[in-house]
Amino acid sequence: MNMTRKTPSLRSAQGEADVAQPDSAPTGHPRNSVQAYDAAAFEHLRINLSAAEKRVATLKGRRSVKKDAQAAWLLKAITCIDLTTLSGDDTPQRVRRLCAKAANPLRADLLEALGMQDRGLTTGAVCVYHRFVKTAVDALEGKGIPVAAVSTGFPAGLNPHALKLKEIEASVRDGAAEIDIVITREHVLTGNWEALYREMRDFRQACGEAHVKAILATGELKTLRNVAKASMVCMMAGADFIKTSTGKESVNATPLVSLVMLRMIRQYQEMTGIKVGYKPAGGVATAKDVLEYQVLMKEELGHDWLQPDLFRVGASSLLADIERQLEHHVTGRYSAFNRHAIG
């Protein structure tokens, strides 16, 4: 095999200076906090659909990341994956396999060829239902990989509010360091923004030290304006991340919805000085997909949002395709998809 040992540098599609090495430490920043409810911060929001669509259309037409640069971007992407299993037939054995893959996301020969064998490369987190939090925490002990639990009646979010809070508290007790909550879509669809704010504020308080990702289920919010307002309200109420989808809706993460949410993150930072993270989830299945999101993150928000403390990707099959692309980079050959185990 023709194995290259050159460590690729992470460069933008236009070949500008290095952005970060794949093992860079996350950028430190203050955690978001609950802000006072202020309707004036979002009630005026409007979305120029044609301009947004035009902006998104430029991503594929003028951006191209190739060779060593692409390998470096994909290595960085691995560190931002929330490796996920959220199936009705999940078992402890499946979760333990997933955790093993999260701790060793690339084969040893590929790590060596890419000069990454001593970098401690792992995924950003493992994401499971509450039922399997303890299993994942035990499997990842000493690995430095957080466990994220989906919560609050995931995916529909229609459980009684008190039960949602108890579910969050139970996952935190079991060791979850991150909680992915789902909002009540009804609050958005009826324009009851204060109810959404109170709900999100309660979720944040129930999480305590665990970071909270607010899943908006954007495919069910009807309009981009609703997506923008829901993003702002959830950040105002203390969300550490805003996330597109549960992965169970008919429409999940899209670049267009992502653009709107990223612009709201930028606006919130301008208002408060606080950086909030972003997580696309559902439908990000290929290396090409994640590269598009990485380029959008860097162009809209900057270098800090290429790090796992501000960028996560909820995915189950993405890692296998990234590993396949990196094997092609090293050997010049593609292998069958089923040779790259998810977990």
From TrEMBL:
RNA-binding in keyword set: no
Enzyme Commission no: 4.1.2.4
InterPro entries associated with the record: Aldolase_TIM, DeoC, DeoC/FbaB/LacD_aldolase
Segments forming a coiled coil: none
GO molecular function, one term: deoxyribose-phosphate aldolase activity
Keyword set, alphabetical order: Lyase, Schiff base
Region (Disordered): 1-32
Family statement drawn from the similarity comment of this UniProt entry: Belongs to the DeoC/FbaB aldolase family. DeoC type 2 subfamily.
PANTHER family: DEOXYRIBOSE-PHOSPHATE ALDOLASE
Annotated protein name in UniProt: Deoxyribose-phosphate aldolase
Originating organism: Herbaspirillum seropedicae (strain SmR1)
Source lineage: Bacteria, Pseudomonadati, Pseudomonadota, Betaproteobacteria, Burkholderiales
